[in-house]
Amino acid sequence: MHAELQLDNQVCFRLYTAARLVTQAYTPMLTELGITYPQYLVLMVLWEKDCQPVNDIAHRLMLETNTVTPLLQRMEKLGIISRKRGEQDKRQHIVSLTAKGREMEQKAYDLIPTGMSEQLASCPLKLEDYQRLVQELDSIINTFKK
After folding, report:
1. CB-hemisphere CA count at 13 Å for 23?
2. Helix crossing, 65-77 with 54-61: angle to 10°?
3. Contacts (Cβ under 8 Å, ≥6 apart) of 85
4. pLDDT tens-place string over residues 99-139
5. Which residues lie closer than 8 Å to 60 by C-beta, 6 or more apart?
6. Which of 9, 35, 71, 74 has the fewest CB atoms within 10 Å distance of its CB?
7. How far apart are CA 47 and CA 102, in angstroms?
8. Which domains does the chain possess?
């Protein structure tokens, strides 16, 4: 067997596993909010800047619009966001937070940072390790970004 093809030698497997397990750790908190992890990502984008075109949200999340659109439709049915046609370009949809979506920001803040910190408390990494990790992951993301 080729060493380059062994699972234990794959960076991609570790990235995949870490991402899956971290996302899984969010699940109980997001369930309490009544949303999924992808919906949480959309909300974070809108909490940073409300009233954005679908294309901008998709770009920020590094996803295709055809992936984001069904997600937004489900969020609209939940009453978290609203979508309306753009004023200049009627083909464009502008996504806005509803009052419920804005209220969820404080609920998420009360639950998620503390909840994730508690789960990571037994991990030997320090704050500066996580900050360095973010930079290193950004380098990987930028290398593979289309």
Report:
1. 13
2. 110
3. 91, 92, 93, 94
4. 999 999 999 999 999 999 999 989 999 989 999 999 999 99
5. 45
6. 9
7. 7
8. 3-144 (1.10.10.10)
59: nearest Cα among 82, 47, 72, 42: 42
Q: Say what the pTM is.
A: 0.92
Gap between the Cα atoms of 20 and 60, Å rounded: 20
What are φ and ψ of residue 10, in 5° steps? -100, 120
98, 80 contact by CB (below 8 A): yes
Only one residue has tokens 């909490």, namely 47
- pLDDT value at position 1? 80
